[in-house]
Amino acid sequence: MHRFALFATSVVFILVASGAGAVAQNDDADKFFRDFSEEWVRANPNLATATRYFTGDEQNRLERQMTLQSDQFYHSRVERARQGLAELRRLSRERMTDSQRVSADLLDWQLQSFVDGERYSELSFPLEQFGGANVNLPNALTVTHALRTAIDADNYLARLRQMRTRMAEALEGSRTRAGKGLIPPRFILQATITQMREFIRPDPEENPLVSSLVERMASIADLTQSRRADLGREAAEIVRSQVYPQWSEAIKFLESLLPRSTDDAGLWRFERGGEAYAYQLNRFTSTKLSAEEIHEIGLRQVERIEKQMDSILRQLGRTNGSVKERIAQLRNTLSYPLTEEGRKQIMADISGIIADAQRRSALQFDRRPKAPVIAQPYPRFREANAAASYTAPALDGSRPGIFQMPLRPDQMTRFGLRTLVYHETVPGHHFQIALSGEDLSLPKFRQARVFGTISATTEGWALYAERLAAESGWYEGDPEGLLGQLDDELFRARRLVVDTGLHAKRWTRQQAIDYGIEPSEVDRYVVNPGQACAYMIGQLKIIELRDKAKNALKDKFSEREFHNAVLAPGAVSLLLLEKAIDAYIGRVR
């Protein structure tokens, strides 16, 4: 994850059931939450634009800016986080309500985590194919910048004009790291160079920065056709004269690093790499589990899931070869044509799966978001590296939840498609993240996830949602679909083994690939250490908590109420989630 993003992990505090012992609302706490969060968002225009955090002139002003990408900006953010911690810790916890206390301790952890990460910030390279400036800057315009009015279109152009400067800042940060010998592995450099070349390959008029603007302007009623044409031409000229030359300069610099790079993949290759990885594991899993413990959990889960899959494969008459080989055959059998028609068909099928999941989930969930969720393919320049992803709706409803799908050959298959859509949309990420955004009882910083999300609960919930679909009979009469669900769970288990293998056990990239992880995914773990471990660690904890509630409540247990209890707190740590479930058990009793 890019170092300007902020994620919370383990939180050392207790959630008390609301009601008993509550005190009057602490206005000082609410004011601090509001004022500090607003200041934080004002300094990050990309965040303000993505969330539509403000309104009127202030929001419009921010939507004409792009967030700085310099090291100086990052360190200024860390310093403000330190100041915020000091201000927060001066507030009286005794005078807070239970809800305020949860928010205060959550924010305390998030800011402390951000401060702690400064020690390892130079181990994150500003240019890489998953979360570098070369990806995040275009994404800030093509995905999260709303285009509904003529003003939105003008703001888009204003931000596009800043792209060259922001990219130059990221390039300067890359030069600084390279000067200290902090260079990405050779295969990461090569993948990033290839992606960036693909970005500048088409004529400027066909670049996503221009085509996205032109396509979305078509629905803006207060723009004349002539004005749309003018804006499109202006955008293409900016891309031609500013964006492409800056990208070309960055590509040349990355190419110059290739002779100095190696194929060593893990954090272990850096001084303090071991402690940096421990920090990342704690940050992403919200546990104190060591790399060795997570590695062993992964091995046990891989063995369990492969046995289940082998049994189903045998029932289908697929008996020859390893589980991995038989699944590869099945995946090929269920492939879409690698044509434009095939690309249209998979996206149409994804939309159908979302609609079907919405109908099914109504039987199992009391709380469902009002915001819609739509599916769209990644732009071509990102297809080779991107993983399927979900982008939250804007708080003001101006943008729906967005599921993006990379349409590269290995993803163009019906095998596992349903479980992937369940994970990213309904009842996975969309249910949890969009619901939090619509929950007015939460402080706004928690609604908008201003200080980041907590991977263990967000990814853990999405993986739990996959299993829930299987447990609830959604794959009845579809053994291939059930195998897809198990294969995805197996993939998450293998991640535990591979991520820890790469960063703590000195695995090579090829070892990780041979273990069953596709190359682009391995590369993702290399540039984003620890994050891949959050999924299964979180899912296992949610299942453990469900079993705990079932055993405690017996016939009083309600799956709907359990899901309410899990989703209500939003993005919290696994420790806080357990306290919430304990409170739910206490209330039902």
Question: Summarize this, please?
Answer:
The chain has 589 residues and is mainly alpha-helical. The protein has 25 helices and three strands.
For this entry, give a set of tags.
589 residues; 3-stranded mixed beta sheet; 61% helix
Instruction: State the helicity in percent bands.
Output: 55-70%
Order of helices and strands: HHHHHHHHHHHHHHHEEEHHHHHHHHHH
First and last CA, distance: 41 Å
Q: What is the arithmetic mean of pLDDT?
A: 93
Q: Biggest sheet, in brief?
A: 3 strands, mixed
Describe the structure.
By secondary structure, this protein is an all-alpha fold. It has a domain of 134 residues. 61% of the residues lie in helices and 2% in strands. The chain has 25 helices and 3 strands. The protein has a 3-stranded mixed sheet, covered by helices on one side. The longest helix has 33 residues. The protein is globular, with a radius of gyration of 24 Å. The N terminus is likely disordered.
